[in-house]
Amino acid sequence: MWQEWMAREPLLFGTAVGHLGLLALLLVAGRAERWVKPMKFCASIAIYLGSMAWYWPLAVASSGAKQVAAMVLAGTLILEMVWIIGQAARGVRSHFNVTTALDGLAFQMAGAVIMINVATAGLVGWWTMGTEGTPYVWEVRLGLLCFVIFAMEGAVMARRLAHSVGVADGGPGLPVVNWSTKGGDLRVAHFVGMHALQVLPVLGFLTGSVAVVAGTFVVWVGLSAGVMVQALRGRPFVKG
Q1: Cα angle vertex 133, ends 9, 46, to 5°?
Q2: Same domain, 137 and 125
Q3: What is the mean pLDDT of each run of 10 residues along the chain (240 residues)?
Q4: Is 121 within 8 Å of 140 (Cβ atoms)?
Q5: Which of 41, 64, 71, 157 has the fewest Cβ atoms within 10 angstroms?
């Protein structure tokens, strides 16, 4: 399976594995609080690019176009990690940091890079329309659609320069994810919506049912939108 996974899209697969290796290094060497965000992003990027590598044969486009798309997906996230680790090494925040002109410029550029990545993922989703629409393929398409929609939610957080609503960022939160337990947290919808990219295709593959395809998509979008509205109203996902 590993050989097939790598053969489907070597660059995306290799970049995903590289981020897992970086995560392992950070777990060993980075025990300070500053390294928690880079660790979480390493894990998230590895899951995302690993998923895209697996789905890659479903995208119907010229080999050149697909090669460029893979380079954009991998390259933009490598740039993102360089920024996040660089800011962590400086002992300052990466996200929502406009304390200095340099920090503000870096934050804006990182946002532009991510928008390019998300747009490319949307393009790959469009390319899957050239593949026969089995329930599994439809779940991949809808998973990518949901991913794109809720990845764009990051722009809401960027405009607010915060992910928490009703409380300051950095307060009491749930273990590992650190979602606020005192106020709203927009990262919940971001997380739930984007991971449709993994959950929906698995359900489509296991069930092979068109009804499940439609039902799970509606439920997943409703859940993601619901927790976003909850956050915007200043209510925690889990009250602590």
Answers
A1: 30
A2: no
A3: 94 98 90 89 97 97 98 98 96 95 96 97 97 92 96 94 94 91 96 96 89 91 96 92
A4: no
A5: 64
Domain that holds residue 214: 133-240
- Mark whether 141 and 117 lie in a shared domain: no
| Residue where one domain finishes, among candidates 76, 98, 131 | 131
Total domains in the fold of the chain: 2
d(CA 91, CA 174): 23
Residue 238 burial by Cβ neighbours in a 10 Å radius (0-12, 13-18, 19+): exposed
Amino acid letter, 120: T
Same domain, 152 and 214: yes
Instruction: Give yes or no: residues 43 and 102 share one domain.
Output: yes
∠ CA 3-204-135, rounded to 5° = 105
Taking phi first (over 0 means left), then psi (-120 to 50 degrees means alpha), and beta for anything else, what does residue 48 get? Answer: alpha
pLDDT given at position 30: 74
Give 35-82 as a DSSP string: GHHHHHHHHHHHHHHHHHHHHGGG--S-HHHHHHHHHHHHHHHHHHHH
Longest CA pairwise span in the chain (Å): 53
Residue type, 171: G
